[in-house]
Give the backbone structure.
Amino acid sequence: MIAGFFRRAGERRRTIRTLHQRIGEAARRPDLYEALGVPDTVEGRFEALSLHVILVLRRLGHLPPPADDVAQELIDSVFVQLDESLRELGVGDMGVSKRIKKLGASFYARAGAYGTALDEGDLQGLAAALARNVLAKDEADAAQALAAYVAASADALAGQDLDALLTQGPRFAAPARAPQEA
């Protein structure tokens, strides 16, 4: 699979589109919203998608070439989709450019915060970043449950090589329900 990644542009685009689609499906799983408290809003769905893309990009960053090319094509695919989504929501040409820049800055800031916390094994820091960015509220239990899901997903992805990511799709953990407040 890897050897053929660059042979034909059409096959490469289909492979990236399939990877992007599988990440999108994981980001739309109802249990993220129902069990882990991710808001079921446009912003919440952006956060869920970003989180899953960041996890896959983080894994790709630890793999040998051509993983770096796959990562760049995945980023391109994600931001083309965001551009199209903004246009579907009625944002004009001038507004799309500004919003994409803002979304890009937010995406990379989150990637840095989540990646640093995961690299350091700092689940408290990860939970704080997720509470601030994804949950947009201070719910310690929900943030801890979401951080546990993210860490477990990072561990699951760590067991996949590039060929598995591209042929089987990324493996993410099953979300555990956040403890309910009494």
Observations:
- The first helix runs from residue 9 to 27.
- Residues 87 and 93 are 8 Å apart (CA to CA).
- The mean pLDDT is 91.
